[in-house]
Write a structure and sequence with these properties.
By secondary structure, the chain is of the alpha/beta class. The chain has one domain (about 5-245): TIM Barrel (Alpha-Beta Barrel), CATH 3.20.20. Helix content is about 45%, strand content about 15%. It has an 8-stranded parallel barrel, surrounded by 7 helices. Strand 2 (about 45-50), helix 3 (about 60-70) and strand 3 form a beta-alpha-beta unit. Helix 2 runs parallel beside helix 3 and helix 7 packs parallel to helix 8. The radius of gyration is 16 Å and the shape is globular. The mean pLDDT is about 90.
Length: about 240
Amino acid sequence: MTVYQTFLDKKTAGQKQIAVLIDPDKLENKTISQIAQTAFDSKVDYFFVGGSLLINNRLDDCIKTLKEAKDIPVVLFPGNTLQMSWKADAILFLSLISGRNAEMLIGRHVIAAPYLKLSPLEVISTGYMLIESGRPTAVSYMSNSDPIPHDKDDIAMCTAMAGEMLGMKLIFMDAGSGAEKPVSPFMISQVKQSINVPLIVGGGIRTPEKAAESAAAGADLLVIGNAFEKDPGLIREIAFSVKEK
């Protein structure tokens, strides 16, 4: 079964999903193995791997460590076209539909396409939407793109609809790493009601309560990253709050 079909099947069954985002630059292999064990015990669905910058050339090692530790699909969440590895199971082929930077909409994709065509990676087209989070984030700076304002639910809703109509298989709303405030429940619910494809939400989800709130609002898959780096136990708490409802 493909990763995307798993997305769809769990969405159809009403099962909320969790992805743990691993930045290879921030974690050593031993820590990654420990996190993988915690994620497995917590019934996490996917590992997302990537970052705004990868400066230590540890992407392959990180993926290898994750796949050796536990049988959880590893999905690339690339910050740029250099963040690719055939060792992963799939890649979110991100088009930044919330911005107006042509390089992030299609330019870099043209460069990556021949590589991906030859690779064994499952390519999942994803409409990526940055949402303002109360502070500048690495992804907004690196993408040279303004996020959708936190309270502009109508813009988010119409952007997501356009992404689906353009053929995107997923919509990913992201407040960004280090966000002061996550995507609001009302914006999540408005977007959810306007699309049929799975909805991913990430950025600023630091507590079980906030995770449960975002899931209840309509997120099919929640991405947690920075929150667990200092306290890996949060993976278990957040997963329980979402999956045991």
